[in-house]
Amino acid sequence: MIDRLDRLVDDISGLNSKLVLLIGPARSGKTHLLEQLSARRQARVLSVGATLSRRLLTVPSTRRHLQAADLLKDLADDFANHGLLLIDNIELLFERALQLSPLDLLKRNAHARRVIAVWPGELRGDRLFYALTGHPEHQDYGIDGLVPFNIH
After folding, report:
1. Cα–Cα 20 to 30 A to 149, which of 36, 53, 85, 119?
2. 80: which strand partners?
3. What is the pTM of this model?
4. Which helix (H) or strand (E) holds 11?
């Protein structure tokens, strides 16, 4: 599977949006696959939950929603290596108080560089989901502008 993902990383270079989402059920190996790619490509993995939350702690809570996207962009710039950004643990981006659109943020980063990210939800047909319908953090997206990479 790592060989197929590694080839895909090269293949998406010419696309307008260079976003690949690793999608699969919990404990299917998404993070492990990203770590393998990290070792193969000698690129660090940006763990959004840990890294962005540390940066957000320095911002007053009333201003976090205003600065979260810019802080994430700065982190992405710091972690990108040779036009490649690896991202995991994005659940923080779904926090309602931050008022973010997680998939749009990933897509924005994928215009300037190849982005390989672990999606913490599921793919049903041509729709991406995060959290169950009725859950406060529920999100439902189309898959336009990204390449889904299913892990079974």
Report:
1. 53
2. none
3. 0.95
4. helix 2-11
Which has the closest alpha carbon to 115: 46, 28, 39, 27? 46
Task: For residue 26, give Cα distances in angstroms to 23, 31, 49, 77.
Answer: 9, 10, 17, 28
Which of 8, 7, 28 has the alpha carbon at shortest distance from 118?
28
CATH 3.30.1300 fits 2-150, yes or no: no
Element (H, E) at 49: helix 48-56
Instruction: Give SS3 for 2.
Output: helix
Q: Whole-angstrom Cα distance, residue 112 to residue 100? A: 20
Domain limits of the chain?
2-150
DSSP 8-state class, residue 109: H
Contact 113, 20 (CB under 8 A): no
3-state secondary structure of 73: helix
- Give the tens place of pLDDT for each residue, 33-71: 999 999 999 999 999 999 999 999 999 999 999 999 999
